Amino acid sequence: MIKSPSQATILIIDDRRENIDLLTAMLDQAGYMHLIGLTDPCAVHDHLSPVPDLILLDMRMPQRSGLMVLDDLNHALGEHCPPVMVLTADNDLNLRNQALCRGAIDYISKPFDYDEVLQRIHNLLQLQLKTLKERDQAARLQMLVNKQTSTLRALSLTHPLTGLPNRRALLDAAERQLMRGSVTVLMIALDGMEAVTQHQGHLMTEALYKHIAELLANSTVARSHRVGVWDSSRLVMLIEGEGDDAAQKAARIHRLINGHHTLEGRLMFLHCHIGISRAHSENEDVAQLFRQAILAIPTNEQPVAEYQPELDNKAQREHLIRTELGAALQSNHLSLVYQPKWRLDGGLLVGAEALLRWQHPTLGAISPAEFIPIAERSADMMQLGDKVLMMALEAVAQWRARALVDECFHLSVNVSAQQLRHGFAESVLARCHATNIPPAIIQLEVTESALIQQISVALRELQQLREAGMHIALDDFGTGYSSLSYLKQLPVDWVKLDRSFIQDLATNASDKHLVGSVIDLAHGFGHGVVAEGVEKVSQQQVLQTIGCDQVQGFLYAKPLAITDFEHILSQGRHAMNAEISPTAH
């Protein structure tokens, strides 16, 4: 490494000998001792060993332009290319900018000004010298650090809780594998860890995570594959090669992890969803490979899914919706519609389910099936649930003030898992009190999956609400994992049969027998039964014969805007005494 600018080796490339002689004379007079002149730009490769400390490069040369020489230098030396100062005329502004874009550091204008040339070269070499000194010092320090921290480096690639490779190690391993061939990533998402933290504490969450990680790492499905930790709720399994059986292995992992786990005498439940992505050559971005695996993680009941390019568009839309949802909560773009509920024995209107709708000013109507899951994965769900409850209570308050409903009417409001926290019952009852709504008019609908995630808190909060007179309904009954075992202990008054059980009810004897058994079981526990998604008279007739209590669905009415629903209410309960029929709207 040079110790002063005057010791620098300077290569001057110019097809005109007189220019080289002029610059050489100027630099020689200033004390520069190692000067090389080159009139043939095609021979530049012969003067790159050793690499000069500075190159002065003319832009306009007939044999090979300065821009082409710059490309040659970058290709040959890459990041080791020395600083290049281009020689251009004052009117060559565009050419000068192109050179700077190719990595040239500075320029010297023609005709040469003695003081400017020397000062620019001196400044650049001083900066280069300083940079080289700093780089040399850093290299020496790095050598010392590397010698003393081999253990720390190993630790930096290891997840401290599980002892498995961490994210950095997984990225490195995938990159090395791509140099040899293909690699397949299985991104394993553990849903339910947050609930464990809320109700069991961080120590139990860590113990559960370690248990799951060890369970996977020691399983036969992970044998010969690298298992590691991506973050606090996701594990990774790397498969070398195309991973033709990746989907089958993912299904085995799902069976291994999904469900109940007993740890230190405590029962905990986890959902497991797995996304799969593949890369085939070292030209592919490793970080992108893992991002695609995350995008592929199913957000529905499907346990395993593979990355598809359209998921990128879906992710962009999801990000847009998540961003816009915050603004929607502060605007009037969110509203409720109401789907009536009817008694099967007599056809009385007994209530309605409040359903959320979002009319975005530019995106149009956004389905709740799309934005509710997005809200549930963000902090917006609490606010969203709060807003729905308040809008529902305000609507009931108006109906009561206008004598459109009585004490026998109930309005159902859906509750998410995020809402079922400590203090939820007190908050709901306080809002009922503030709007002067008797709790018995409100029915909260809770899915089984939400109850399982928050089981200890849910039991206390829902029992408190029930004791205050509020009705609780178990929504989407039969689509979960342990409906029968939970049905006895949960503080519910109503069971809602999922539409999937109703669809083939009139044509499938097994479905009819199953639904009949569920109704008998619910009645045995003292619960009423509501069938949702009723769309055909034949379905209604079967439900009547097997003892279903209430129904809702397109056969009777679609979800109605508030004015349309108030029109039904204004007809009075007596007007609904006739037998329910497809025209009884």
UniProtKB/TrEMBL annotation:
Q: Which SUPFAM superfamilies match?
A: CheY-like, EAL domain-like, Nucleotide cyclase
List, for all copies, the residue spans of the domain called Response regulatory: 9-125
The reply to whether Phosphoprotein figures as a keyword in the UniProt entry is yes
One Pfam family this sequence matches: EAL
Modified residue 4-aspartylphosphate is at which positions? 58
Q: Where is the GGDEF domain?
A: 181-309
Keywords on record: Phosphoprotein
Where does the EAL domain start and stop, copy by copy? Answer: 318-573
Q: What name does this protein carry?
A: GGDEF domain-containing response regulator
